[in-house]
């Protein structure tokens, strides 16, 4: 088991009233599982993802990621955990604007102080996502689809145990979206990574092993999908 | 800490962003350059004062007394191995055979190469070097003019007739006008004996002038031997004593330059803080991503700290270099404009001070905004938050350090704890006031929002309180900038007025001695007939101290444990009486009694130094011998005399109603417009009252005036320099504010707002900001300069409001124009760039 959520509750303190965004969230994710979280806008998907990845703290409940209880970790311990075991893909790519494509992919490795070989790994990954000619381009010189491919390469560069993706294709057209999706699943299969995707896109969700449906901050269904054939 | 990663990221990250740090670098460069330049100026000025003091004294040290230096002291003086000259000074009548007139003169007999610093100015110039070779005399120029005599005529002193060898254009001696009241005649010291003027009982002053090797610490030397010399009635004067007198006069200039230096540094710091704040804001997203990828918060902080620190270091070094270059080339460029010969030297201490302060203040002021990097959460990758950076609690420590280092810096400049605490306290208060105003503005605009105003006004005003608004940053920086500029402007005016008031132009330059009491009306009318002002016309009674605190002078002198100085005890007292204290003097203790009420006690007023010399205080009794009559008085008040003005000052003042019948003469102080009037006036006075003598102080004033010209120049230059930096920092922080609004404006434009609307919306916002911060800044400056003027500079506070109105309008127009310029940039930008997330 790589991820476990127990009795998760998240409350935002509004100006004069509390807003319960997540309530009574319980689930477990096994190593290598591919899972999607779907739900209407505002249902708390992004919030849940942020909590699972250790970017934020729940109001109450226990989250265990890769065997460690992240609610009890310090910020630095969480940062370290993310660096070693977690990868991210964002809807709006989140590349560092001042770094080139290659440098963006190298950053997680450099954070691990793996200087030797880092460049080779990054070049390899960029080639895998079809951007071998664009090493020295800055994000502003790349299209949205290209930027997202760079961020895919970055997400896999540190060999994460678990990968979080928030609407990875939300900002891309259908065709480009499909290319990115396929790349994501391909790389995932190769590296045997656990993958958690937040999405509106039911087609994308249906390509995963399991779908968790959120509504109003609660889980309304948690089903396995038998679609190994599609993949 | 992963240092190689931090260094790498810092370098890479700065590649595309260096232009955003131009303000940061330029404020440091300018601020440090100004600091170095001002401190060097200050050092140069001090050196100038030193040179001037040397040339006023003419030697490194003098020893003087009413007797020649006794054998017992000769040993220690010989140990100095100094070059020396001796002077015998006495007052005597002289006879002018050519016109059959006599004149009371100050006869100076010189042996040796004195003066060692400065020169004895004569006409012909060579006369000053040859007069000691025979029966020659150098005679005061004014006296020769008065009698229509010229070089080659003769003057008889005692038994010897001297040929007038040259006109004496200046004289060495005390500036204290009261003691030198006769025209000077210089002769060779060896001829003094032949004149037979050195009779037993005649009042003679012996002065020995010394020029020592530069490495001898005369003040230390003096400290050890002062008592020994004092006991032999010999007084030692060093350059240091002389310099203290001069520096007292220029204390204000020093404080002013210190303030300007501080202000330049502060302006630079505003630039640093606001540019780093904006820089950090643009970096929040990158920091969040790095954090998300597993960078620790202190590592992210280190990345940006390193960037800023290295750029800061480079800028400080550049600033020190530029400041020193300014020092070197300025005199060359300005040569023809400068009112005096400049001998600017690079000052190492100014460079070091500039470097240390530059690094310290850059680091601290950048640290305050940089600290908030530590609180950037990785969550911001998922959701752009309102308030991208949260203030860090550690910043209070940084603020504390900032206040401390400013205080420390001020202390290093002024050497006064009280002043430095007051100054930095004042700056802190100004900052808090501006901060409060900013808060009040956002609060009240929201509360009393003009809901029915036009779209443009509503948009512009709501920009003042919207998330990510720049109200606080801009009000504080524009307000502080305006305040500092205005303060500088006001202070410069006040100090220039004061310094120029001290100049020869406004100083009295003539003193008439020896007027009989019944000639008072006559001398007044003569003076007025030459249209000259009567600055002082006061009675003088000479008396001798007979005893105090119940013991006679003899008893005191025998007492070896006494704390009173022999010099003060033996001093001939020149006393005046007046009903009111002069406004130039300051009452330190007690109450001034102006009129004797006929009662038991006569309350007199003493100068602080005199009281200290005798070691007496309020209520102590003093008995005087007034030409045979004993009068007992009590100390009623103690005053501080202001020696800055050239008037006769009296250490001892009686109330009126006591001394009117005592033998006395009067002193009249006036001011003559030019040399010819001086000569004519002297003629008229001497013709109608032969007993009186007229002394021309013009020569002494010439030296003073040349210093004052320099001082005014330095003040103007330094203030101008600092105002320039202020403007540059102000303008650039306004320019930088465009990054704040660029997204909003571009979005509005994408949504279809026409150019004009965007201009107008921004105009409303900047206008509101400009007005508010200018008003606050100017009000702060007025109160600040009032406090400085009254507490530090001790000047009368008056300001003209018209220039302030000018500053007010200028700041508003400036803010508005730059605001519009910023929107021009937005309008000309393609919305596409923003969509790309640049
Ligand atoms: N900082 C915050 N303060 C207050 N409320 C918040 C905050 N962040 C999120 N919310 C609220 O939490 C709820 C869940 O938000 P979240 O972003 O998780 O939804 P989502 O499911 O990801 O929606 P979408 O599909 O539109 O991205 C929303 O109602 C949102 O308004
Ligand atoms: Mg979402």
Task: Describe the overall structure.
The complex is a heterodimer of chains A (231) and B (838). Chain A has 231 residues and is an alpha/beta fold. Chain A has a single domain, classed as P-loop containing nucleotide triphosphate hydrolases (Rossmann fold, 3-Layer(aba) Sandwich). Chain A is 34% helix and 27% strand. Chain A is built from 7 helices and 10 strands. Chain A has helices spanning 45-52, 75-85, 101-111, 118-128, 144-157, 174-191, 202-206, and strands at 3-13, 18-29, 34-38, 60-65, 68-69, 86-89, 162-166, 194-198, 210-215, 218-224. The two termini of chain B are 30 Å apart. In chain B, a hairpin with a 4-residue loop joins strand 2 (83-96) and strand 3 (101-111). The relative contact order of chain B is 0.12. The model of chain B is unreliable at 174-180 and 834-838 (pLDDT under 50). Chain B folds into 4 domains: 1-53 and 252-383, no CATH class; 60-248, no CATH class; 428-505 and 710-838, no CATH class; 534-670, no CATH class. The chains are: A alpha/beta (231), B alpha+beta (838). At the A-B interface, helix 1, helix 2 and helix 3 of A face helix 1 and helix 8 of B. Magnesium ion is lined by residues 45-46 of chain A.
């Amino acid at each position: 088991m790589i991820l476990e959520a127990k009795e998760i509750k998240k409350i935002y303190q509004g100006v004069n009233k509390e807003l319960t965004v997540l309530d009574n969230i319980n689930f477990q994710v096994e190593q290598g599982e591919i899972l999607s979280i779907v739900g209407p806008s505002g249902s708390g998907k992004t919030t849940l993802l942020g909590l699972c990845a250790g970017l934020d703290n729940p109001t109450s409940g226990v989250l265990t990621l890769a065997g460690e209880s992240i609610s009890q970790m310090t910020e630095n311990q969480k940062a370290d955990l993310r660096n070693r075991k977690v990868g991210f893909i964002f809807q709006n790519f989140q590349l560092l604007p001042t770094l080139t494509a290659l440098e963006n992919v190298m950053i997680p490795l450099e954070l691990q102080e793996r200087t030797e070989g880092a460049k080779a790994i990054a070049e390899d990954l960029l080639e895998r996502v079809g951007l071998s000619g664009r090493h020295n381009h800055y994000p502003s010189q790349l299209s949205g689809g290209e930027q997202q491919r760079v961020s895919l390469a970055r997400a896999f560069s540190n060999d994460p145990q678990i990968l979080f993706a928030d609407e990875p294709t939300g900002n891309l057209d259908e065709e480009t979206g499909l290319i990115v999706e396929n790349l994501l699943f391909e790389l995932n299969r190769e590296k045997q990574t656990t993958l958690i995707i937040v999405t509106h896109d039911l087609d994308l969700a249906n390509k995963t092993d399991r779908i968790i449906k959120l509504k109003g901050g609660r889980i309304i269904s948690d089903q396995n999908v038998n679609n190994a054939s599609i993949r | 800490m992963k240092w190689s990663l931090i260094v790498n990221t810092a370098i890479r990250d700065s590649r595309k962003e260096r232009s955003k740090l131009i303000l940061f670098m330029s404020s440091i460069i300018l601020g440090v350059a100004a600091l170095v330049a001002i401190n060097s100026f200050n050092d140069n000025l001090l050196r100038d004062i030193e040179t001037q003091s040397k040339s006023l004294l003419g030697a490194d040290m003098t020893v003087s007394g009413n007797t020649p230096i006794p054998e017992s002291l000769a040993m220690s003086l010989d140990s100095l191995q100094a070059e020396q000259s001796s002077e015998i000074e006495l007052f005597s009548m002289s006879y002018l055979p050519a016109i059959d007139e006599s004149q009371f003169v100050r006869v100076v007999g010189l042996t040796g190469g004195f003066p060692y610093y400065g020169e004895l100015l004569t006409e012909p110039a060579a006369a000053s070097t040859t007069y000691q070779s025979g029966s020659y005399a150098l005679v005061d120029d004014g006296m020769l003019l008065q009698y229509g005599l010229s070089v080659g005529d003769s003057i008889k002193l005692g038994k010897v007739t001297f040929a007038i060898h040259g006109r004496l254009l200046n004289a060495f001696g005390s500036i204290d006008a009261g003691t030198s009241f006769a025209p000077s005649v210089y002769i060779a010291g060896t001829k003094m004996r032949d004149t037979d003027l050195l009779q037993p009982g005649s009042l003679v002053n012996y002065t020995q002038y010394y020029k020592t090797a530069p490495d001898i610490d005369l003040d230390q030397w003096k400290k050890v031997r002062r008592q020994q010399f004092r006991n032999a009635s010999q007084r030692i004067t060093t350059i240091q004593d002389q310099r203290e007198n001069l520096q007292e006069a220029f204390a204000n200039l020093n404080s002013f330059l210190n303030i300007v230096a501080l202000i330049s540094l502060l302006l630079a710091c505003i630039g640093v803080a606001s540019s780093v704040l904006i820089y950090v804001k643009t970096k929040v997203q990158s920091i969040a991503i790095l954090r998300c990828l597993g960078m620790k918060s202190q590592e992210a902080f280190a990345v940006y700290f390193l960037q800023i620190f290295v750029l800061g270091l480079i800028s400080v070094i550049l600033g020190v270099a530029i400041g020193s270059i300014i020092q070197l080339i300025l005199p060359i460029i300005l040569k023809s404009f400068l009112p005096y010969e400049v001998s600017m030297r690079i000052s190492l201490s100014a460079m070091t001070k500039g470097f240390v302060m530059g690094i310290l203040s850059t680091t601290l002021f950048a640290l305050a905004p940089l600290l908030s990097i530590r609180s950037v959460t990785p969550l911001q990758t998922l959701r752009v938050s309102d308030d991208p950076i949260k203030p860090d609690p550690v910043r209070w420590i940084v603020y504390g350090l900032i206040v401390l280092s400013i205080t420390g810096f001020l202390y290093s400049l002024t050497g006064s704890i009280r002043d430095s605490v007051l100054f930095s306290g004042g700056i802190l208060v100004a900052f808090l006031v501006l901060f409060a105003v900013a808060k009040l503005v956002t609060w009240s605009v929201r509360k009393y929002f003009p809901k029915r105003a036009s779209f443009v006004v509503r948009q512009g005003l709501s920009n003042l309180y919207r998330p990510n608004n720049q109200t606080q940053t801009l009000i504080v920086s524009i307000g502080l900038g305006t305040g500092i500029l205005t303060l500088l402007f006001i202070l410069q005016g006040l100090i220039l007025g004061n310094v120029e008031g001290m100049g020869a132009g406004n100083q009295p330059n003539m003193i008439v001695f020896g007027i009989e009491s019944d000639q008072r009306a006559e001398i007044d009318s003569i003076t007025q007939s030459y249209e000259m002002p009567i600055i002082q016309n006061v009675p003088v009674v000479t008396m001798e101290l007979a005893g105090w605190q119940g013991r006679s002078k003899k008893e005191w002198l025998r007492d070896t444990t006494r704390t009173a100085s022999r010099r003060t005890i033996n001093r001939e007292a020149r006393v005046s009486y007046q009903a009111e204290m002069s406004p130039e003097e300051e009452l330190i203790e007690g109450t001034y009694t102006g009129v004797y009420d006929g009662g038991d006690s006569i309350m007199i007023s003493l100068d602080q130094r005199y009281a200290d010399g005798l070691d007496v205080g309020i209520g102590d009794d003093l008995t005087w011998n007034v030409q045979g009559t004993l009068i007992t008085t009590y100390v009623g008040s103690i005053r501080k005399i202001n020696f800055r003005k050239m008037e006769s000052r009296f250490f001892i003042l009686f109330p009126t109603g006591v001394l009117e019948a005592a033998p006395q003469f009067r002193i009249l102080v006036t001011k003559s417009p030019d040399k010819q009037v001086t000569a004519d006036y002297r003629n008229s006075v001497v013709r109608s009252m032969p007993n009186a003598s007229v002394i021309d102080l013009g020569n002494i004033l010439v030296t003073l005036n040349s210093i004052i010209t320099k001082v005014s120049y330095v003040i103007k230059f330094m203030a101008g320099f600092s105002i320039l930096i202020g403007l540059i920092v102000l303008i650039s922080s306004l320019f930088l504010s465009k990054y704040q609004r660029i997204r909003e404006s571009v979005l509005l434009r994408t949504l279809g707002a026409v150019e004009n609307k965007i201009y107008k919306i921004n105009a409303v916002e900047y206008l509101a900001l400009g007005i508010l911060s200018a008003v606050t800044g100017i009000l702060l400056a007025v109160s600040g300069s009032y406090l400085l003027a009254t507490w530090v500079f001790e000047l009368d506070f008056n300001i003209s409001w018209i220039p302030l109105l000018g500053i007010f309008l200028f700041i508003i127009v400036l803010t508005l124009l730059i605001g519009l310029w910023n929107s021009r940039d937005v309008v000309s930008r393609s919305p596409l760039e923003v969509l790309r997330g640049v």
